[in-house]
C-alpha cells in the first residue's frame, strides 16, 4: 500500500495582514523579537510593513532559515519594504524592567523607527505589549504572517551583528559563535573568566557565578 505523502510545510502569507488592513483602513506592520533567552546581550525587535506587490521570495520564520539565507534576505526586505525599523533594549534595561517589559520596549522602539506609522501591528506571541498602534497578537506568527516573519529576520540579523561586535569587545566568551546563548564554550568561559558587562546578571546561571566570586 502506498503511503500518503507528508503534508508540505506551510509558508507564511499575507492573509492576516489583508484582513487587518481592511478593518483598520491603514498600514499594518509585523513585529517580532530576538534574544529573549540568552545569558548575554540585549534583546532586539523589528517592525516591517511589507509591500504586497514587491515581496522578496523566501521570507520565512528566521528560526528555520540558515544564517546565510537570513543575511541574503535582510537587504532585500529593507530595500523592498514600505518601511522597517529595528529597536533594542539593553542589558541594563533588561535588569531594570525584566525581560518581558524590555522586549516590549524594544518592540516599541522598532515601531517608532518606521518611516510610515502603522494603524495596527501583528505581534508574534500572546502578550499584548504597549505599542503606539492597535495590536493583534498571533501565536506562532513568524510561521503564519509574512510581515512577522520578515521582522523576525531583521531582529535576528541585527542582534547577531551586535553580538559579533561584543565578541570583539569582550573576547574569550565566544559571543560571535553562540550569540550569548547557553553553550558549552560559553559555560567554560564563564567559569574561567567570570561574567563581563554584557552578561545579564539577573539570569540565574550568571547570578550563581557572581555569588561564587
Description:
- This protein has 213 residues and is of the alpha/beta class.
- The protein has one domain: Nucleotidyltransferase, domain 5.
- It contains 8 helices and 5 strands.
- Strands 3-2-1-4-5 form a 5-stranded mixed sheet.
- A hairpin with an 8-residue loop joins strand 1 (28-34) and strand 2.
- Helix 2 packs across helix 5 (146-169) and helix 3 packs across helix 4.
- The longest helix is centred in the last third of the chain and has 24 residues, at 146-169.
- It is elongated.
- The chain starts with 14 loop residues before the first helix and ends with a helix.
- The relative contact order is 0.20.
- The model is unreliable at 1-6 (pLDDT under 50).
Query: How does the overall form come out from the CA principal axes?
Result: elongated
Structural class: alpha/beta
> Multimeric state of these chains?
single chain
Give the termini distance in whole angstroms: 65 Å
Number of domains: 1
Q: Give the percentage of residues in beta strands.
A: 5-15%
Q: Average pLDDT, to the nearest integer?
A: 94
CATH architecture: 2-Layer Sandwich
What's the β-strand tally? 5
Within CATH, the superfamily carries the name Ribonuclease H-like superfamily/Ribonuclease H
Key terms for this structure?
213 residues, alpha/beta, Nucleotidyltransferase, domain 5, 5-stranded mixed beta sheet, 15% strand
Short description:
This protein is α/β, with parallel strands linked by helices. It is built from eight helices and five strands, in the order H-E-E-H-E-H-H-E-E-H-H-H-H.
Amino acid at each position: 500500500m502506498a503511503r500518503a505523502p507528508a503534508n508540505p510545510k506551510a509558508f507564511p502569507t499575507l492573509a492576516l495582514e489583508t484582513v487587518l488592513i481592511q478593518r483598520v483602513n491603514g498600514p499594518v506592520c509585523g513585529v517580532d523579537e530576538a534574544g529573549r533567552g540568552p545569558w548575554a546581550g540585549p534583546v532586539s525587535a523589528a517592525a516591517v510593513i511589507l509591500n504586497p506587490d514587491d515581496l522578496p521570495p523566501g521570507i520565512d520564520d528566521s528560526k528555520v532559515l540558515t544564517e546565510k539565507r537570513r543575511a541574503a534576505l535582510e537587504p532585500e526586505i529593507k530595500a523592498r519594504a514600505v518601511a522597517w525599523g529595528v529597536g533594542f533594549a539593553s542589558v541594563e534595561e533588561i535588569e531594570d524592567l525584566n525581560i518581558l517589559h524590555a522586549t516590549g520596549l524594544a518592540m516599541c522602539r522598532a515601531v517608532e523607527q518606521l518611516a510610515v506609522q502603522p494603524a495596527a501591528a501583528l505581534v508574534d506571541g500572546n502578550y499584548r505589549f504597549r505599542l503606539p498602534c492597535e495590536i493583534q497578537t498571533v501565536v506562532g506568527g513568524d510561521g503564519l504572517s509574512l510581515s512577522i516573519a520578515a521582522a523576525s529576520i531583521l531582529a535576528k540579523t541585527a542582534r547577531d551583528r551586535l553580538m559579533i561586535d561584543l565578541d570583539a569587545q569582550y573576547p574569550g566568551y565566544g559571543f560571535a559563535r553562540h550569540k550569548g546563548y547557553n553553550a558549552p564554550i560559553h559555560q567554560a568561559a564563564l567559569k574561567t573568566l567570570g561574567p563581563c558587562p554584557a552578561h545579564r546578571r539577573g539570569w540565574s546561571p550568571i547570578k550563581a557565578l557572581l555569588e561564587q566570586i
